[in-house]
Amino acid sequence: MSKFNKGWYLMYTKPNYERKVCDSLTNHNIEFFLPQITKVKTWSDRKKYVSSPLFPSYIFIYLNNKIEFFQGQNIAGVLCYVRIGKELAKVCDHVIINLKLILNIQEDIEISKANIKTGQKITIERGPLAGLDCEVVQLMGTKKILVRSGILERNIIIPEHHIAYN
Question: Which domain holds residue 144?
């Protein structure tokens, strides 16, 4: 790691340590992104809105230099940075932008590890998902919006009704 390329990287944490790690990153003034969704959890005696990570045990972290890299690595609860071979796996900026757009709707979001055939690639131009690069695919007889997260090997699936047509 002679020359450091600043940008978004992916950090892997112990299970259920995401928020604790984020608090520590905040204390170190290191930028991070923890995509979360809010869902209704039902117990026998009550219902409650619960916020949980979209990708459990993963945090996106923006590193500017080697110092931030080592500070992040030494936080309690961090297991490692995700790597491809010996290199740190860098996350493209458009992946972060797409995730932030998706989290604006907070409903009907599904995560899938399935290998889904490539669909028609589009960029949504209007509505709450304006600017989102995605694909329109046919799943179980209905059209869905598919966003591939790349490095996480997960697909984010959203119902087509979130596209604003003319």
Answer: 104-162
